[in-house]
Amino acid sequence: MALKSAFPPSVDADTRLLILGSLPGDASIRQGEYYAHRGNAFWHLIGDVLEEDLRGQPYPLRLKRLRARGVGLWDVMERAEREGSLDSRIRGAELRDLGLFAARLPALRAIAFNGKTAAIHGRRQLNARSDLTLIDLPSTSGAYASLSREAKRQHWMTLREHLASSPGT
Q1: Cα separation of 108 and 135, whole Å?
Q2: Is 114 designated active site?
């Protein structure tokens, strides 16, 4: 099995909403970008939430636009062994200290889990945090096909109430 490592967080002191995935897939690792696989709906769905076309933007601008709205990205795992990209293939996961990380984000109000694996590992660490709203979302992965993109979109739109206002509005 191949050892896969996650990316550094994309956050700043104004992060109000943190979206946690499990561990980047192979396409993301190759490109060095969160949610890089063409079949992953993340950038479409978060773009709908923000009412911006993020998918068509260069990756650094996507991250900048998320941060401008108080949205951060990270993963619950630091590294793990996994053949391929499916969460079901993860073995020997080394988890991140999410409680300590959340405590370092002064504006943080909500954490959303992108998929079941992220929710299971994240909630184990964060359920005692009554100051944070924890939100379980369906995975944006194309491998999670039991919900249509539109059904996923309905769930993801609940994030709107946790966003910072867009600059200039």
Answers
A1: 13
A2: no
List the chain residues with pLDDT less than 70.
165-169
Indicate left, alpha or beta for 113 from its phi (over 0: left) and psi (-120 to 50: alpha): beta
pTM score of the predicted model: 0.94
CB 54 within 8 A of CB 162: no
Residue 160 and residue 93: Cα distance in Å, rounded? Answer: 31
- Report d(CA 140, CA 73) in Å as an integer: 14
Active-site annotation holder among 15, 22, 40, 140 = 40
pLDDT at 168: 43
Which residue in this structure is represented by tokens 């309905």? 154
Q: Tell me: the pLDDT tens digits for 5-26?
A: 999 999 999 999 999 999 999 9
146-147-152-153 Cα dihedral, nearest 10 degrees: 150
